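Continuing the batch. This is chain 6 of the set; chains 1 through 5 are on the previous pages. Same settings as before, nothing changed between runs. Recording input and output for traceability.
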Amino acid sequence: MANGSVIQDIKDILSLGKGFSITFRHMFRPRYTFQYPEVKRPTMPRQRWRHNLHRYANGMERCIGCSLCAAACPAQAIFVEPAENTDEDRRSPGERYAKRYEINLLRCIFCGYCEEACPTQAIVLGQEFELVDDDREDFIYTKERLIVAPDKGHGEAPEGVRSLPYVQEVLK
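Output for chain 6:
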């Protein structure tokens, strides 16, 4: 019996030594410390973070209110309320536009399925990863918070699509 406890003690000491060897090995490696707010750590190119709703170069919204992103979302974090475009108030090149577009980032798992499902490449997951906030309601990103400024322009509009007067005023 005493012999079994000695063997167990030796095994415990060896496992302790193995653990400390990992610690000592890492102690002498160079440290990778970033002064966070001033110097941001580089992210991988394919990382997916905050959502952006893109526009065409003429300022029109790419989102046509088809709700394919909401259907593809496994967490059901996206809500799209479509509305019909009129000749006086044309917001997107399609027949419809997203009157209300919301993403609940507390439910979102940042899988990118919404980005893949979008036929017009309107929703894109960007590189911005600082999403901290105090209030739960602030994690529901509305269309106004998601949409990219019109002067950023992200591609040409399809053939035959004209720009709207209100878009031209914003661009000035």
